[in-house]
Amino acid sequence: MAPPPPRPSLGALFFVLAVVFAGIAAAAAEAVDSEPGLIVVVVAAAAIGVWLLTLAARNLRKRRP
Predict the structure, then answer these.
(1) Average pLDDT of 8-18?
(2) pLDDT surpasses 80 at 65
(3) What is the pLDDT of residue 7?
(4) What sign results for the dihedral spanned by CA atoms 15, 16, 21, 22?
(5) How far is it, in rounded angstroms, from Cα 57 to Cα 11?
(6) What CA–CA distance (Å, rounded) separates 55 from 48?
(7) Which DSSP symbol is given to 2?
């Protein structure tokens, strides 16, 4: 079974969501000094952001003939 063709609009959505999760991770990382329990949020948001970034790259890549 062939993989589905890349969809640039879906890739753009994944990219925007990855940037949002990177912002969440950055904001939580700044607040870790006052609330150490937020390290869980930092790690989770960063992991989701990286995953979404790989999905974005896969969908934004040009299809090879």
Answers:
(1) 95
(2) no
(3) 86
(4) positive
(5) 7
(6) 11
(7) P
